[in-house]
Every structure is written in structure tokens, then in C-alpha cells.
Write the C-alpha cells for this entry.
Amino acid sequence: MSTYGQEAGINFDFHGTVANTFDAHRLIQHYQEELGPQVANKIVDSLYTQYFTQRAHPSAPETLLRAAVDAGVDRTGAGSFIEDEYDGLQETKMVLREQVSNGIDSVPYILFEGKRRDFTVQGAKEVGEYLKTLEAVAKEAH
């Protein structure tokens, strides 16, 4: 992973704090519903950058606030949401339960819809594994 990152100009640092990421998921889920997937993706990008290159705690309020602001969310509104640990709590739990009941228990979880069957890639894989799956999807499409 470090080698791929270096080739793309990313200096991964895997020595940060490993912690519960529920509050990060709550933030992402809330703003995906409120402001759409583009904002949610920007929040995820910021969280990944902070965690994987700057050793930021994945659910610390300052990490979450920075991610929201980086995504263009109003600082005051985001701060209020982050401080209220109950806001979005049940909705996020419901989404996570749904995913677990669908057999999703790792990230990333990517489902490619094929013409005759679906293809799933679970967990961190080498680039070759994704290419192999995409080639299988393309082969079935013809």
C-alpha cells in the first residue's frame, strides 16, 4: 500500500490511533442525507487524508469538524452536529445493521453488477484483483 501511495504522491503513515469510527460514520451518513453524496465523499477524503497521512484520531471532534469544513459544510452547523452524540445515532445504527445483515463486514466492499451474476470484492486487495474482477464483468457483458 505504501508503494502505491508513494507512486501517487501519498505518504501513508500507518502508526496512528486505531479507534472506533462510529462517529465518523455518523457524520458521513448525516451529510450524505443532508447535502448529498458529493459532500459525503469529500468528508471521507478528508478523514482518510487526516488518518492515513497525519495520524489524526479517526473520531476525535477536531478531526470530524475539519473533515466537514474541508467538504464545504458550515463550521457552526457541523460543530453542533458533532457535539450532539445523539443526532443521527439511530439512523446510522440502522444503516450499519442493514449492511451487516447483507453480509457486509469489511471495507471496502465493492459489488460489480454483471450481466449474468454479480461480482464482489471485499477488503483491501491488490490492484490486480480489481482488474481481474473488472475483466470478468466485461467478458460476461459480451
Remarks:
- The mean pLDDT is 91.
- Residues 107 and 123 are 5 Å apart (CA to CA).
- DSSP finds seven helices and two strands in the chain.
- The first strand starts at residue 109 and ends at 113.
